[in-house]
């Protein structure tokens, strides 16, 4: 997974050429590391993420 992320001293960036299958795998690892698998399916995690992105986009609306 590390090769999918570009890291600077202060920030991490997801490379722009990452495939959807790689993102799916990263999401599964993220959930597994936090023991969320029994509570959240990949679909539910994605919907929660989309909701958070929507809230963030409100901040940047002009």
TrEMBL record:
Superkingdom as given in the UniProt entry: Eukaryota
SUPFAM superfamilies: all-alpha NTP pyrophosphatases
Protein name per Swiss-Prot or TrEMBL: Nucleotide pyrophosphohydrolase
